[in-house]
Amino acid sequence: MGAALSGGNGSGVGPGLGDIPESCVACVFLYLTPPEICNLARLNRAFRGAASSDAVWEAKLPANYHDLLDLLPPERYRNLSKKDIFALLSRPVPVGDGNKEVWLDRVTGRVCMSISARAMAITGIEDRRYWNWLPTEESRFHEVAYLQQIWWFEVDGAVKFPFPADIYTISFRLHLGKFSKRLGRRVCYFEHTHGWDIKPVKFELSTSDGQQASSECRLDDTVQDEINGNHKRGCWIDYKVGEFIVSHTDPATEVRFSMKQIDCTHSKGGLCVDAVYIVPSDLRQRKRRVLK
Questions:
Q1: b/e code 156-165 from CB counts within 10 Å (16+ = b)
Q2: Which pTM does this prediction carry?
Q3: Which residue, among 131, 128, 110, has the nearest Cα to 120 in the 3D structure?
Q4: d(CA 189, CA 58)
Q5: Percent of the chain scored above 70 by pLDDT?
């Protein structure tokens, strides 16, 4: 029986995979992830046909995927199948002036967003004695804000977007030290890195429907690093601000977020600010498990 079922065209003694109706395959595909569907599409014509079904891919798209399409010129998505729309939205879609991007997670089809440091209000950013913009391929926005030294450290941002119903986590992507390439190798410099072990940085978020969250963290906690062997310097780290819940897409949710260390008794410096990420909370946890 097993040998017969392994046949792709139904030419064996018993029924094969090629004998399964395309409509039945499509029903099974509703319970699979997009990568699994694409892999199974290689088996035979019925699987390939079901893997191109609009009904299958409509179920993989978020309910408000038209809001994401509205960010693109109509000619980019006109006459596309639902499968092609999913593929299109799985790539970063610029929001507004291009300092924000939104995309669909390739496995779950859920909405994620990143917000560049350029889209945030950063205290002293116009003064090159304090801040500089560094070009880099290590950021999806191809540049990061580098702090040399400052006393009043504050970064604020906001976004208003019709997020689908879900639980989201906001995090800042930060890097202690200045990095570059020398002879093809990545090197880091820490001559400006100071002050982050004295007082914690405070992270906060609030939403238009009254949700609030906050957290604190010493960015350069050398005592903790020595205990756990987890050296923060020279690495990109996502610092969690908090979570918020979206129950309804309409009206659009406005989220405000910040990080600050405004104790003016000491200066701090040597920090790169890349972006803020807003992703479904369990996707963030999945990513952390994979990295471990």
A1: ebbbebbbbe
A2: 0.86
A3: 131
A4: 49
A5: 87
